[in-house]
Recover the amino acids of this structure.
């Protein structure tokens, strides 16, 4: 299984997280305010707790932990939901998230192929009447608002597995049935993680800077503005297929940051 | 074709909308209040969205017909542009739309009747013949089977003969034009870059041969056609490459019947360019040296007046009256 180095999972319940932790070989990394799991590649999962506020707080907590990272991460909220008409066990991605109490709406970009979609309504109390033909759950709106602070919206997605509907009430939902539902959707969840990681790779790949940048950065003292100029110059050399010239520049001794940047600017014009 | 269709509540019941929704019943259809909720929001990435764009069906308010940017088209009257659509199904790396919009989703404004009313009003108010450009914010023909743009707007211009419509395109979706009887005040302007640039930068665009073939069919059906050689992207064999392109095009078409031919350098507002660089930091085109003049950015070149040389080459094929340089 791919190790999904750039994916953060946000899950409300430990029960929902149980199989994900197992599938993705996640290990407990922190258990202070939230329980956070991580695998050797860098995939992370947080058990944020129930409700929109906990979902937002947990997502932000995880986001803040990685605030210094150069790479952007994809965010996936996975959890069970009720639905007026969808079959038990349906795995649906959210195409619209409405927070019922505030009336605010969000529109996730549809990036997954081969998966049905649904409108998700985030409620503050469990919805057992299912008045609209949508998925009802308690976290997606909080998760979305939190994750958007750290990522572009294409990399923020919600997956809902239907555990109850009009014919199959919440009273019939048990620990075992949740585990069984999650287990039955392993292939779809993994497929979504594959697609999300591919998008994150595309995003991060375009912005990647080689080790040469790091070495040039450490060769002289640069202001933040100069660091950005250096970054862009390194990107330009790479885009133009002239990375070898950066290696040559590395061999020079520069007395100042200005001298380094001037040399790089002059050479790229040549 | 689309990852989803978003529909403004206000237009949901319009016949034009219902027809499109029926055609794509298997795609998620999502209601929204205003298209800006999806199109104009922050934290979007045009490059990622281009992998699976959605269609947004909306109503456009306000000024639907705008004065054209200076130097946009040919001389011959007051010039205006209108955009029934935002964004393009093609993925030309040099396109300024990537830097102008936050979203790569396509917005189709379905209130054609409102556009027509304003077009006719502007036309009536103009002292001289007015020129209306379509294809500034989109490719007007590329989505024709769905938008039915030509099917609706060609008759509008046919009944306002003092106005000229220029449809600027790279598309070969010409069936609905060919099914309409040609009339004088409509020009279909096809854009080209040289072969190498086309292969390198014009993703998902019909081949040069197919575009020439489409122009020939239009010309044979009596339609006025025009050629837009833009954007010119400086390259080492520029003249040789364009000579090959000119040879192909002008050997096929009836040169005397060509309405106009223009050349335009690669340039765009520097703010758009900065946005594009952020999206494509790994793209060689945007790693090249640039020059800024009056807020517009263009590619630097060591050649002296390369555009003049290209113009001289072009004027070996066409008359000076047919030519203009795009500002």
């Amino acid at each position: 299984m791919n190790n999904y180095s750039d994916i953060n999972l946000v899950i409300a319940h430990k029960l929902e997280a149980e199989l994900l932790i197992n599938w993705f070989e996640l290990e407990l990394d922190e258990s202070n305010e939230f329980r956070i799991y991580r695998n050797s590649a860098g995939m992370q999962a947080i058990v944020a707790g129930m409700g929109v506020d906990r979902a937002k707080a947990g997502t932000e907590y995880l986001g803040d932990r990685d605030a210094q990272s150069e790479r952007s991460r994809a965010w996936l909220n996975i959890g069970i939901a009720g639905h007026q008409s969808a079959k038990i066990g349906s795995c649906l991605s959210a195409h619209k998230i409405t927070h019922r109490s505030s009336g605010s709406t969000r529109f996730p970009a549809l990036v997954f192929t081969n998966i049905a979609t649904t409108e998700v309504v985030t409620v503050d109390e469990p919805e057992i009447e299912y008045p609209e033909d949508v998925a009802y759950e308690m976290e997606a709106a909080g998760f979305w608002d939190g994750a958007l602070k750290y990522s572009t919206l294409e990399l923020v997605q919600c997956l809902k597995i239907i555990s109850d509907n009009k014919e199959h009430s919440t009273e019939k939902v048990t620990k075992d049935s949740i585990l069984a539902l999650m287990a039955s959707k392993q292939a779809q969840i993994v497929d979504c993680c594959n697609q999300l990681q591919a998008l994150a790779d595309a995003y991060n790949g375009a912005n990647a800077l080689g080790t040469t940048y790091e070495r040039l950065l450490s060769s002289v003292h640069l202001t933040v503005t100069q660091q950005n100029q250096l970054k862009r110059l390194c990107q330009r050399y790479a885009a133009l297929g002239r990375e070898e010239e950066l290696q040559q520049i590395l061999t020079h001794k520069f007395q100042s940051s200005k001298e380094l940047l001037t040399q790089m600017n002059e050479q790229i014009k040549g | 074709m689309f990852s989803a269709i978003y529909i403004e509540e206000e237009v949901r019941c319009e016949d034009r909308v219902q027809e499109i929704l029926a055609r794509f019943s298997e795609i998620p259809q999502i209601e929204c209040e205003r298209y800006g909720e999806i199109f104009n929001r922050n934290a979007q990435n045009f490059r990622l969205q281009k992998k699976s764009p959605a269609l947004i069906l909306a109503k456009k308010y306000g000024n639907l017909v705008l004065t054209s940017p200076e130097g946009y088209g040919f001389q011959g009257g007051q010039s205006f542009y209108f955009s029934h659509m935002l964004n393009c199904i093609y993925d030309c790396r040099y396109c300024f739309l990537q830097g102008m919009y936050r979203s790569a989703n396509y917005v189709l404004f379905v209130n054609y009747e409102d556009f027509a009313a304003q077009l006719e009003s502007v036309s009536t108010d103009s002292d001289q013949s007015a020129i209306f450009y379509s294809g500034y914010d989109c490719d007007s023909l590329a989505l024709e089977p769905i938008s039915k743009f030509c099917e609706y707007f060609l008759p509008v211009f046919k009944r306002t003969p003092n106005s000229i419509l220029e449809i600027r395109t790279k598309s070969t979706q010409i069936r609905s034009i060919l099914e309409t009887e040609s009339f004088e005040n409509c020009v279909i302007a096809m854009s080209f870059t040289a072969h190498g640039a086309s292969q390198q930068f014009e993703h998902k665009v019909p081949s040069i041969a197919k575009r020439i073939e489409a122009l020939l069919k239009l010309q044979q059906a009596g339609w006025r056609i025009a050629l837009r050689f833009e954007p010119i992207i400086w390259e080492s064999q520029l003249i040789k490459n364009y000579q090959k392109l000119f040879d192909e095009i002008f050997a096929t078409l009836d040169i005397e019947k060509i309405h106009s031919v223009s050349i335009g350098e690669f340039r765009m507002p520097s703010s758009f360019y900065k946005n594009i660089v952020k999206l494509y930091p790994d793209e060689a085109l945007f790693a090249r040296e640039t020059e800024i003049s009056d807020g517009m950015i263009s590619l630097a070149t060591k050649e002296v007046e390369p555009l003049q040389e290209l113009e001289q080459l072009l004027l070996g094929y066409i008359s000076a009256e047919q030519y203009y340089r795009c500002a």
User: Anything to note?
Assistant: Residues 186-207 of chain A form the longest helix (22 residues). Chain A touches chain B through 32 residues (CB under 8 Å). The mean pLDDT of chain A is 95. The first strand of chain A starts at residue 7 and ends at 11.
